[in-house]
Amino acid sequence: MKNIVWHEGQVTKEGRAKLKKQRPFVIWLTGLSGSGKSTLANALDTYFFTSGFHSYLLDGDNVRHGLNRDLGFDLDSRVENIRRIGEVAKLMADAGLIVISAFISPYRAERDMVRAMFSEGEFIEVYLDTSLEACERRDPKGLYKKAREGKISQFTGIDSPYEVPLTPEVIVKSERQSVQSEVETVIDYLLSKKLLDR
């Protein structure tokens, strides 16, 4: 951009991470509405907190109450929603934090856009492989019912597509796994990649 120059601070990302005694990265939870993203995100955040790590949870609904309250649910707004979240997650990782993001993020292109913001190995895509039928049965917010009744348009899984990740780092199956088992699946991956060292 014209007349805008990136300012390098004296305190580095590596320095902040060293102070926190951890490696920063983003766990990007993706899946249909009702797939269990928020439940897993909260469980992971609790795990990190009780284990002495510095983490922060970015939840789709919460972000739309503030930062992204000016955005709708049309395609352009959805892409911008994810772009902004990616930028926020990047800033938080730069601060040395472990970032947990829980967003439907239905399109591969937007997830790849966010992945490209991070260094190799810092973006962990976790796909909650939950069937549409199971998500509709759960329907925790009553959104599927409204979508089926025509009260909500462009609803992911009903009249708007969800593009399944092709090569996610982690797959969890909430229809078969307990929340504790899901957490262990994610943590086992992080330990195997030496993203956690204690």
Describe this structure in words.
- The protein is an alpha/beta fold and 198 residues long.
- It has a single domain, classed as P-loop containing nucleotide triphosphate hydrolases (Rossmann fold), CATH 3.40.50.300.
- It is 42% helix and 13% strand.
- The chain has eight helices and five strands, in the order H-E-H-E-H-H-E-H-E-H-H-E-H.
- It has a five-stranded parallel beta sheet, sandwiched between helices.
- Helix 4 packs parallel to helix 5.
- The longest helix has 20 residues.
Strand content bin: 5-15%
What is the total domain count?
Answer: 1
The count of strands amounts to 5
Helix content estimate: 40-55%
**What string, H for helix and E for strand, traces the elements in order?**
HEHEHHEHEHHEH
The span between the termini is 42 Å
Brief overview, please?
The chain has 198 residues and is α/β, with parallel strands linked by helices. The chain has a single domain, classed as Rossmann fold. The chain is built from eight helices and five strands, in the order αβαβααβαβααβα.
